[in-house]
Amino acid sequence: MARQDLPVVTSRALALVATVLMATTACSAPQVGTGGKSGGQDMARSSAAPSASASLPIEKFALTAQESHTVERAKVLLANECLRGFGLDYRIPEPSPLVVESSRRYGIADREVARDHGYHLPPQAGQADVAKQPTEAQKAILFGTNREGEQQTTSSDGRTIPPGGCYGDAEVQLNGGPLPESDIAVAATIDKESFKRSLDDKRVGQAFRVWSTCVERHGYRYQDPMASVSDRAFDTEEPTQRERAVALADMDCKTEVGLLKTWGAVETEIQTRMVKSKSSTLNRLRSFQKRKMSNADEVIKRLSN
């Protein structure tokens, strides 16, 4: 079972980036199953499932979890239509039913999840553990590359493979125009930078100190919520009893000292200023998203059974 090693810095804005860019960089079939542990120290790592997070200004310009799910479903339908056109019987499984969790932007934020799973991510209901993998010949058409990662432009029977293969071509069709990479980068920067700046705010620092004192009363010593969630003692396949106890104390102390409310208010102030300074760029990004959503809705209407 995956564990949240550090608080999720990314909100739906970076979920958008992952969704938009995934097909252009894909090198394997879309994954259906989860499992294992999340690794690395990148504070901008996404969670294993879409999150319902506290509303931050940047989210006005981001796809919701439901919209991201819709886009991914449309992408799969288009890619499978393309595969049929090449006479292949392989099909990408459609995305699992959407499961939205509480945001982990500021660490654990759901008392029931803390009690039952500690800092580990709850299992996703309805997900298959193993997806059928395409053959090498099918991968070449699906992603437009051969085993060595070199671009492949024609199939074995001489038909033209679109750039990026069927999956990449599906992304192009949904985009309906050039990918606004610079606009996406601006949204991603605001989303990450505002979190980092919030850590330097005196109000957040004071809330951390009060939280730390509260957690110590429960018998645990952590300087801030990031220290508890990243405790390597909890880097296990399944949550331990101590991990669940620490996560529960973490959550209860956040509630007692109003940490989530304070932290969210501080970051909202920071983001509001950052968003205002980039309003034209972000409005352009939102227009792109609306066009993509409209295209996705049309694809689903046309291709869904």
Q: Describe it for me?
A:
- The protein is mainly alpha-helical.
- The chain contains eleven helices and two strands.
- It has helices at 12-25, 65-85, 111-117, 136-143, 165-175, 181-199, 202-217, 225-229, 241-257, 259-277, 279-303, and strands at 51-52, 101-102.
- It has a two-stranded parallel ribbon.
- The radius of gyration is 21 Å and the shape is globular.
- The two termini are 33 Å apart.
Main beta sheet: strand number and arrangement? 2 strands, parallel
What's the helical proportion of residues? 40-55%
> Structural class of the secondary elements?
mainly alpha
Gyration radius from CA atoms, angstroms: 21 Å
Run of helices and strands: HEHEHHHHHHHHH
Task: Tell me the overall shape.
Answer: globular
Strands in their spatial order, largest beta sheet: 1-2
Oligomer: single chain
- Unreliable parts: 5-53
Beta-strand percentage range:
under 5%
Mean pLDDT: 83
Q: Number of DSSP helices?
A: 11
Q: How far is the first residue's CA from the last residue's CA?
A: 33 Å
**Strand element count:** 2
Task: Name the descriptors.
305 residues; mainly alpha; two-stranded parallel sheet; 53% helix
Compile the SSE list and pairings.
Elements: H1 12-25, E1 51-52, H2 65-85, E2 101-102, H3 111-117, H4 136-143, H5 165-175, H6 181-199, H7 202-217, H8 225-229, H9 241-257, H10 259-277, H11 279-303
Parallel strand pairs: 1-2
Helix pairs in contact: 1-2, 1-6, 2-5, 2-11, 3-9, 4-5, 6-10, 6-11, 7-9, 7-10
Structure summarized in a few sentences:
This protein is mainly alpha-helical.
